[in-house]
Amino acid sequence: MKTVKHTSDSRGHVNHGWLDSHHSFSFSTYHNPERMNFGVLRVLNDDRVAAGQGFGRHPHDNMEIISIPLYGDLEHEDSMGNKKVIKEGDIQVMSAGTGIFHSEYNPNTDKEVQFLQIWVIPNERSVEPRYDQKTIADLSEPNQLNQILSPNADDAGVWIHQNAWFHLGTFDNDTELNYQLKDANNGVYAFVLEGDVSIEDQTLNKRDGLGIWETDNISLSAKKGAKVLFMEVPMNLN
Fold first, then answer.
1. Would you say the pTM of this structure is higher than 0.90?
2. What is the arrangement of strands in the sheet containing 158-159, beginning at the earlier edge strand?
């Protein structure tokens, strides 16, 4: 087993006033050659957007882009004709494929929106762009890791063009469990959203991240009030 730990305060940080963002991996003006990616997990941004502000219309291609709101609402509009609002308890996925334009705004005038922006390098290029969102709150049971993303359209949650699985756990009791990886060539990047957890005997606090690979099983001990996202992704960029 190999691991790499990224503490919350070691992340890249930019504050533009309307946008306050922490980057777990190199992004925009933050560049760290030792933190370019974790396997095919290329971007993990922890964003806060001020009331009434947002990202104007901009392009993407050949990337699987996942948004998970943690607080507030995010309005999405794209060149495929979608205009949607995602909120806490939802997950959104966009396969950029051959190319799309989109914008993201905080439609509220009285509160910020907090969300995770996650980019995964796809296993197939130049696919037809697609959009989907689901309410994952309906899929979730407390004190376990609930699947919210997979490679399969018929599975729980949304799907992407990659051999990846995301699981989200919210714990209202002290809990110990084991996570079995779906593929021996994958690793897991665990990101703590709230509270304190121990993963393979490493203590993690709010907004800490831990990458784990070359193993088929991961032990998790979560304290009451913890919330953690497990992102299982291929480690080979090819």
1. yes
2. 2-6, 209-213, 186-194, 227-234, 165-170, 145-150, 158-159
